[in-house]
Amino acid sequence: MNVYAFQTDITWENKVANYENVHTLGERFKPQPGGLIVLPEMFATGFSMQTTITKEPEDGPSFTFLSELAQRTHCHVVGGLAIDQGNSRPTNEAFTIDPGGQRLHRYAKLHPFSMGKESQHYQAGSEITQFELPGGLRCCIFICYDLRFPEIFRQAMASEKPPHLFIVIANWPNMRTTHWTRLLEARAIENLAYVIGVNRTGSDPYLCYDGASAIIDPLGKTLCLADHKEQVLQANVEAHVVDQWRETFPALKDRR
User: Could you tell me which residues come within 8 angstroms of residue 108 by beta carbon, excluding any fewer than 6 positions away?
Assistant: First the structure.
């Protein structure tokens, strides 16, 4: 399967501008039908604590945009958005949409970033789940700060049929870019899995972002790495590559 990491320069708290930007990138890079498009965390607003602006119902405008993007490109699409929880704080989530425009999967961020006061404005998720793409490619999604907690990746790997691919969407700031790249590599190596890390670039009123989105193979080789510019990365990922490596190097079977 061809995967496309859309590293975008997010316009602060402006959903319409960000929808238009993703659309423009899609027209420019033209993902092939049958692929997987991945957008950053909170792609429509940036990492804002103004939840009156960010939060939406499950079928709100960002879902509608993702659905239309999936149908137009005939691809699966992953994108991050804030979901209204009524009387409680919203959740920072990733939705996966199938090529027919229907929601296939959702994941709520397990670890709100307390240093950035995210935990004061967004509630934590509670479940690690996975879904399957064509070709038998099993996927698990995490969001930004989750990357620093290897135990949740191991929990995903403890399932009867563990993921072939981990997707990490983020707004990861430039003062910790080295951590981002090293941790993505580590998660791939230790879990013998593909890892796609999709970060934003540019800046918001508080932070700057280096991008450094990456697609890493199960041996820890970086297939492609973005610089600080807005761009789309593309690589091919296949379940059988993961299965073969896990058979050749069966380290997961030696866990105690």
Answer: 83, 91, 92, 93, 124, 125, 126, 127
Q: Tell me the two tokens of residue 38.
A: 């991945």
Q: Report, as residue numbers or ranges, the catalytic residues.
A: 41, 109, 144
Fold classified for 2-254: Nitrilase/N-carbamoyl-D-aminoacid amidohydrolase (3.60.110)
- Spatial contact of 212 and 180, defined as CB atoms under 8 Å apart: yes
Domain locations along the chain: 2-254
Axis crossing angle, helix 61-73 with helix 15-29, rounded to the nearest 10: 10
Give every CB contact of residue 207 below 8 A, 6+ residues apart in sequence: 47, 171, 173, 174
- Cβ-proximal residues to 150 (8 Å cutoff; 6+ apart), any chain: 186, 187, 190
Per-residue pLDDT of 43-74, as tens digits, reads 999 999 999 999 999 999 999 999 999 999 99
pLDDT tens, position by position, 121-166 = 999 999 999 999 999 999 999 999 999 999 999 999 999 999 999 9
